[in-house]
Amino acid sequence: MYISQQIAANAVNQVLSGRNLTLALPAALAAFPDATPQQRGAAQDLSYGTLRFYGEIEAYLTQLLEKQLTDDRIHALLLVAVFQLLHDKADAFTVVNQAVHAVSELKRPAAKSWAKGLVNAILRNFLRQKEQLAGALKTSEVATYSYPQWWINKLKIQYPQHWQGILETGNQHPPMTLRVNTKKISINDYIQLLTRQDIESSVIGPQAVTLSRPQSVEKIPGFTDGIVSVQDYGAQLAAHLLDLEVNSRVLDACCAPGGKTGHILELANVNMTSLDSDEARLQRVQSNLDRLQLRSNLIVGDAGSASWWDGVVFDRILADVPCTASGIVRRHVDIKWLRREADIPSFAAQQAKILPSLWQMLAKGGKLLYVTCSIFNEENQGQVDKFLLNNADAKQIPFELPIGHPQSSITNINGQLIPSTAHDGFFYALLQKN
């Protein structure tokens, strides 16, 4: 297990230095090519868990350390070990011994014997003083909720009735939800297929099935054949809200990795164009479409510019714009610690550039669905309100959620989906050109 601790500590240290976990974890794993699949899986769990509860863990360590550690690697290793002692089922004695072993394996520590002694002392002090330390943290919201204080303060203002639930949901493990292609198989038949494979599931939407336990995609029946895709239930609402019409021209702007493009094509026979500024990400879109046996016109281009556009208007536009991703933190636990409050105006400025750019490409009477995976108002209804003030030919169309299934569980406030056990946090605004 100490190898898993080392890998996780490496990944956590990179994230706390400013690197995205989707890049940090593969780099950390690559440093241990001989790690077993079990060790690699455990390292991933430890990385995600440590960052999920970093605010709490760091608050404990701050009390235990007499002065700040000069070696970030040792600090990260202690974070991982304290996470295990707080939230993992591993034996405490084993966790401490493995952490001492792990620190002894570090290259070029300032003094190995000193480092081993420190790690051993800190972790054993934590075990002895855990209740006393926990009492001292009760007044700290950062320690209680494991979010930056600015994030907590913002949610208190914007969601006075929901802020605690939003924070707590963001620290849970995300559900694994599938989107069933009902053109190929009915949702009831697919549930029976899962049952025959001893995979427990439940229907939560017209095409949405949540698995009781996450599965690797290669073990999901029908995935390689394009019968199902992995997609959060909240994200599945986008294609339905577009009000698709047969043979209409549809643009999916900022389309990568292609989940919503695929869903649109599963729902209706349309003339589909998928736009993204990153050619490498478009290759992933193409790979997903190939698996689904679907086709779209893929274009490399900036949604905030018309330089790629041929001048032919679209009947429907999906504007899934870049955002803080504050609504999907349980899937991307590093976001809480990488984002800064100053990032919000930066994303809002980018969104304010994209919306009018796409609006000129929309046909009269056409509809544009503005989407973010954020819970911050500045990126959501606040952004839409500013756009409506500056564009007299635009109106916001109300819609109702949930869509199409009595078991759906959608917490919706004027287009803002509040993160819940059933779905992540998304914002939807449907705009029509007069």
Please explain how this structure is put together.
This protein has 434 residues and is of the alpha/beta class. The chain folds into three domains: 2-140, NusB-like (N-utilizing Substance Protein B Homolog, Chain A, Orthogonal Bundle), CATH 1.10.940; 176-229, Alpha-Beta Plaits, CATH 3.30.70; 233-433, Rossmann fold, CATH 3.40.50.150. Helix content is 47%, strand content 15%. It has helices spanning 2-16, 21-30, 37-52, 54-64, 72-87, 92-104, 112-136, 141-145, 149-158, 163-170, 187-196, 233-241, 259-267, 279-292, 335-338, 343-359, 381-390, and strands at 176-180, 201-203, 208-211, 228-230, 249-253, 271-276, 297-300, 314-320, 362-372, 394-397, 412-413, 416-417, 427-433. The strands form three sheets. Strands 7-6-5-8-9-13-10 form a seven-stranded mixed beta sheet, with helices on both faces. The radius of gyration is 24 Å and the shape is globular.
Short description:
The protein has helices spanning 2-16, 21-30, 37-52, 54-64, 72-87, 92-104, 112-136, 141-145, 149-158, 163-170, 187-196, 233-241, 259-267, 279-292, 335-338, 343-359, 381-390; strands at residues 176-180, 201-203, 208-211, 228-230, 249-253, 271-276, 297-300, 314-320, 362-372, 394-397, 412-413, 416-417, 427-433.
Name a few traits of the molecule.
434 residues; 13 strands; N-utilizing Substance Protein B Homolog, Chain A; globular; Alpha-Beta Plaits; alpha/beta; Rossmann fold; 4-stranded antiparallel beta sheet
Topology overview:
Elements (H helix, E strand, L loop, with lengths): L1 H15 L4 H10 L6 H16 L1 H11 L7 H16 L4 H13 L7 H25 L4 H5 L3 H10 L4 H8 L5 E5 L6 H10 L4 E3 L4 E4 L16 E3 L2 H9 L7 E5 L5 H9 L3 E6 L2 H14 L4 E4 L13 E7 L14 H4 L4 H17 L2 E11 L8 H10 L3 E4 L14 E2 L2 E2 L9 E7 L1
Helix pairs in contact: 1-2, 1-3, 1-5, 1-6, 3-5, 4-5, 4-7, 5-6, 5-7, 6-7, 9-10, 12-13
